[in-house]
Design brief:
5 helices, binds magnesium ion, binds guanosine-5'-diphosphate, Rossmann fold
Length: 166
């Protein structure tokens, strides 16, 4: 089993942190500063029964300048080249206008899209369901998976769900 997976989401939601945890190497640059990741970076996760190729993308946002415009195009393009899309959001921040922009973009995507609610270590479990509903109302996600990329909660489960789709 093998496939390509694109990780998209607003800047700083934890895309690079997730990829580094799964791949186990510091191959994507992590930072508090928005837009540190300027290129697609590939990471390959290999087990006995699966090979998952991850594409870490620049944070998607409404373009305000030429570089931003380019970065959005890179991210958009990647969605049409993969088998599965991971849309990562921040559990602490909830639905925002940046997410709305991404969800509009996802309307053109035919592949399964997983909603990954990251940073659950920072929210009370009771806050999670209303937050998830906000996203669920706006898009028909193939799976909704809460995780903590930083602490590793539920990450193995997510990798298994992705493997099952390949
Ligand atoms: P990216 O812009 O989406 O690639 O985000 P990064 O992976 O660079 O992470 C941005 C910031 O969020 C960093 O300070 C990370 O340590 C932090 N972060 C990432 N995942 C988690 C998480 O699961 N929990 C918490 N508390 N912080 C996280
Ligand atoms: Mg990044």
């Amino acid at each position: 089993k093998s496939g390509f997976i694109s990780i998209i989401g607003r800047p700083n939601v934890g895309k690079s942190t997730f990829m580094n945890r799964v791949i186990g190497q510091k191959i994507a640059i992590m930072s508090d500063k928005a837009q540190t990741t300027r290129n697609k970076i590939q990471g390959v996760y290999t087990t006995e029964d699966a090979q998952l190729v991850f594409l870490d993308t620049p944070g998607i946002h409404k373009p305000k300048h030429k570089l931003g415009d380019f970065m959005v195009k890179v991210a958009e393009q990647s969605l049409n080249e993969v088998d599965l899309v991971m849309f990562m959001v921040n559990a602490k921040e909830g639905f925002g206008r940046g997410d709305e922009y991404i969800i509009n973009m996802l309307q053109k995507v035919n592949q399964p899209v997983f909603l990954i609610v990251n940073k659950i270590d920072e929210v009370h479990p009771d806050e999670l369901l209303p937050l998830i509903d906000e996203y669920r109302e706006r898009y028909d996600f193939a799976e909704i998976v809460p995780i903590s990329a930083l602490e590793g909660n539920n990450v193995d489960h997510l990798v298994q769900l992705m493997t099952d789709r390949m």
